[in-house]
Amino acid sequence: MQITKEIKFKFVVATRENVENFWTHTATGRSLALYLSPSVEVSLFANNSRGLPEVYNEVIDQCTNDPAILIFAHDDLHILDFHWMHAIFNGLNHFGVVGLAGNKRRVPLQPSWAFIDENFTWDSLSNLSGLVAHGKSFPPEIINNFGPPFEEVKLLDGLLLAAFSEVLIKKDLKFDELFKFHFYDLDFCRQAENKGIKMGTIPLSLIHESRGSLGPEEWRQGYQNYLRKWGQ
Q: Which CATH code fits 9-230?
């Protein structure tokens, strides 16, 4: 399957910045400004205070009669890969949902795709897949090489998730709006697994400015909601 002019890539991004500042001050906005074309659209939620699942679901619903490759992305991503469209498209020819980093297994009470307990103990690299750099600019402060990409996984990091809208709609897969920011990605992956949707990692070069925020009260409330929903 090849990329054709009929295939549309739609970034879905929520930001606390206003529209102008998104395009000039955020990493994702500045990156996307370089790649805009007739085949690339941005569904931007500026001045946003809603949870990510709520805005993501809004765009999924909008795609019922306007299909696209949906890319749910944080607003602090420096996209360095000039061929990002091909990386995502090729990944979606193998998996129903793709991301940049993930875990090939799940364990009870797992608080993150990468950690196996509340002490934030890293899982073995043999179970992890993907690569993500962190920092504010290029070259990045660090490159986290978790393992070879193009691996089927059970959990994906939510910094960037992509899927054909038709797959999400056909399988009735949406984000649970119980989760505002933390745990929406783990929950989404659990739902995808239950619906028989394969997930996998892809090679795509970017820098994520944030390293996550694990441990604060908002995160712990999300963790408790996640455990109440799934039981483990």
A: 3.90.550.10
State mean pLDDT over 26-37: 95
If you average pLDDT over residues 58-84, what whole number do you get? Answer: 97
Q: pTM higher than 0.85, yes or no?
A: yes
What is the residue extent of each domain of the chain?
A: 9-230
How far, in Å, are 108, 138, 179, 231 from residue 227 at the CA level?
10, 38, 12, 5
Encoding tokens for residue 211?
């390293």
- Closest CA relative to residue 101, chosen from 12, 203, 184: 203
